[in-house]
Write a structure and sequence with these properties.
The structure is a single chain. Helix content is 32%, strand content 20%. The protein has 2 domains: 130 residues, no CATH class; 85 residues, no CATH class. By secondary structure, the protein is an alpha+beta fold. A 4-stranded antiparallel β-sheet has the order 4-3-6-7, with no helix packed on it. The protein has a 3-stranded antiparallel β-sheet with strand order 2-5-8, with no helix packed on it.
């Protein structure tokens, strides 16, 4: 997935790193989702600063202009950095609320873990894509006249595809109930580099499958006229095209 797709680390990811997180957040009245967003903003600033610090001569000849945060792919070191920075922010709030040394120790622990994850990212380099395909918005599903589709509840999501066939990530699935009808799916506004879109349909939100054999044309809706097939499941976004080394700056004096 791309960094700008959001939710680099989920609540579940954070809870795996710290089993007491949700209890602490509840008792101390800390909104963890706000901290997730703040950590993303902070990391975006720092990663873009890293990319800005790369000399032009270090860039591949095909890359103009310089990559930005929109080009960044989430890698394990980047995901860990975000998770640890979020936890550091949570425990910083908890410490300043109660001045509890236990919270201070946890804050300091996650600060060191975040620093180490950032160093691993610098060592590994920042993963980038040439033509980023952002995550799609949740599509609109509405009844359509016709027969042949069993009555029931269906779940629908979608992804954008660029001219190279690279696919972005899917949003959470929308649901629609049918009763003697088909249903029609409309995508949201296409990003500037989209060449088409894919639709995924199923009977459970975590079991949706590709329905169209080839990408659907921009501006065209999809009508589900048959029971959902069992094509491939949604992917997890674009793979990196290039890993940008990040030079370490040695300060003089």
């Amino acid at each position: 997935m791309l960094f700008m797709d959001g939710e680099v680390s989920s609540l579940e990811d954070l809870a795996k790193q710290d089993s007491r997180l949700l209890d602490v957040a509840n008792v101390e009245n800390i909104d963890v989702t706000v901290k997730i967003a703040l950590a993303e903003e902070e990391i975006a600033i720092q990663v873009e600063s890293m990319l800005n610090g790369v000399k032009w001569m270090d860039q591949p000849s095909w890359w103009r202009p310089k990559p930005r945060i929109e080009n960044v792919v989430v890698t394990p070191p980047l995901r860990l950095w975000h998770a640890y920075l979020t936890l550091e922010m949570v425990y910083e709030d908890a410490f300043f609320s109660q001045l509890n040394d236990r919270f201070k120790a946890r804050r300091d622990q996650f600060h060191e873990k975040a620093r180490a994850a950032k160093e691993k990212l610098i060592d590994a380099g920042v993963a980038l894509v040439w033509r980023p395909v952002p995550q799609a918005e949740i599509p609109t599903a509405e009844p359509a006249p016709g027969a042949g589709l069993a009555d029931g509840t269906y779940y629908v999501t979608m992804s954008w595809v660029n001219e190279s066939g690279e696919e972005g990530t899917c949003p959470p699935a929308a649901s629609i109930k049918t009763a003697g009808s088909l249903f029609l799916v409309r995508p949201g506004e296409a990003p500037h580099n989209a060449a088409g879109w894919n639709v995924f349909v199923g009977t459970a939100p975590d079991a949706v499958f590709l329905q169209n054999p080839t990408p659907i044309e921009l501006g065209q809706p999809w009508i589900q006229t048959y029971a959902p097939g069992t094509g491939r499941a949604p992917g997890d976004g674009q793979r990196p095209d290039y890993v940008q080394p990040i030079p370490r700056v040695i300060r003089r004096g």
